[in-house]
Amino acid sequence: MKINVVGTSGSGKSTLSKHISNALNIPHIEMDYLFWKPNWTESTDEEFNSKLEHALAQESWVLDGNFTRTTPIKWKHVDLVVWVDFSYPRTLLQAFKRALVRATTKVELWEGTGNKESFKKLFTKDSIILWTITNYKKNKQKYQAIMNSDEYAHIRFVRVKSPKEASQFIAALGNSDF
């Protein structure tokens, strides 16, 4: 099974991805881990695409992340795309809480990178909170269009709109032929 979990930052992609990975006992791959290098340096497209292709060469996986420019790679053999589409207030609150906790605890976000959230970063143009505010509506429109597109008619899409629906989806994984 090959699954990509998508949604706006703060929506709960990582949490849901990890639950799916655990429920199906298949590897979890975080796109941010593949993308970010030490000191918040971005991978080039060539580096990123190579890392992604290598990670997706496995028989089964749950991929956590958007990165629209990688769609031809990540959806080449995907079986299922799960769109985490929680409400704007909930998503923004989750993004804010996550950023605040990360800035407070100074936890390294991706092993070996040294990258950590900071209070200073919360109030810059690179703020994940600002990104969520400015991209929530765009992402919603993008994924609605993708789900209705003939180009992706071969992919099964599941849209979860609440934590309750996410829990029901996880519970159904053990009782289905995904």
Question: Which characteristics define this entry?
Answer:
178 residues; alpha/beta; Rossmann fold; five-stranded parallel sheet; two-stranded antiparallel sheet; 8 helices; globular
Q: CATH superfamily membership, which one?
A: P-loop containing nucleotide triphosphate hydrolases
Shape: globular
Strand content: 5-15%
Radius of gyration: 16 Å
Protein name: Adenylate kinase
InterPro entries: Cytidylate_Kinase-2 (IPR052922), P-loop_NTPase (IPR027417)
Organism: Litoribrevibacter euphylliae
GO molecular function: kinase activity
Describe this structure in words.
InterPro entries: Cytidylate_Kinase-2 (IPR052922), P-loop_NTPase (IPR027417). The structure is a single chain. The chain is an alpha/beta fold and 178 residues long. It has one domain: 3-Layer(aba) Sandwich (Rossmann fold), CATH 3.40.50.300. The chain contains eight helices and seven strands. The strands form two sheets. Strands 2-5-1-6-7 form a five-stranded parallel sheet. A hairpin with a 3-residue loop joins strand 3 and strand 4. It is globular.
What's this entry about, in short?
By secondary structure, the chain is an alpha/beta fold. Helix content is 48%, strand content 15%. The mean pLDDT is 92.
Describe the SSE topology.
Blueprint: E1 2-6, H1 13-24, E2 28-30, H2 31-35, E3 36-37, E4 41-42, H3 45-55, E5 61-64, H4 71-74, E6 80-84, H5 88-105, H6 119-122, H7 128-147, E7 156-160, H8 163-173
Parallel strand pairs: 1-5, 1-6, 2-5, 6-7
Antiparallel strand pairs: 3-4
